[in-house]
Design a protein that fits this description.
Blueprint lengths: L3 H6 L5 E4 L4 H9 L4 E4 L4 H14 L3 H25 L8 E8 L2 E3 L2 H9 L3 E2 L9 H7 L3 E4 L10 H5 L8 H4 L3 E3 L3 H4 L4 H22 L1
Parallel strand pairs: 1-2, 3-5, 3-6, 6-7
Antiparallel strand pairs: 3-4
Length: 212
Amino acid sequence: MESVADILRLKPSLVIGSVPFKAEVVAKLLEAPLNFLAKNPRTLADIQNDIRLLGGITQHQAQAERVIQRMEREFTAIAKRAVANRDKISRKLRVYCEAWPNPRISSPPWVAELVEICGAEMVVPGGQKVPEEEVAAGRPDVIVLAWAATGVKAKPGTAYNVAAWKDVPAVRAKQVHVVRDELLNTPGPPLIAGARELLRIFTQAAAKASRG
């Protein structure tokens, strides 16, 4: 939707918004008046609860539970693959995932959980503004760029050119990767593909490190 007018033209009985949304847009929707449901999931558990809530609202509880079960099943399988890969590396990879470059904002907290599922660890808290120096102090082995609403248009060069990061292991080893933003920033089933992509990146990075 490009504007509040576009939304109103559809005459919805319910509008669902997920953070971040603009307060002025919400205010205009409420003036209509419309029923507005604001969502702000932070963790994978929050995402499951939201799916259950939406399933209840739409009277599709059984389908919602199937979605949740599929996500849990897939994450368990990915975690098992990550465990199988651990004998190839001497330690957990350290990872920085970024949702926006200016100001720098780390990926949502649920991405940190995906990183853990994939056998690695985030070096900064999720979903926060982070100084470049804090990222550098975390010494990530891998940097993942999944800039919100940009698809795959994030630019690795911006990471390689950060002065504070010149000695960061990920920069020195050319381990800055772009992941399609929907796969990490969408609080729902697309996170399955996002976790698979993270595992692929981490596996390759670990293999390269063991050879070097």
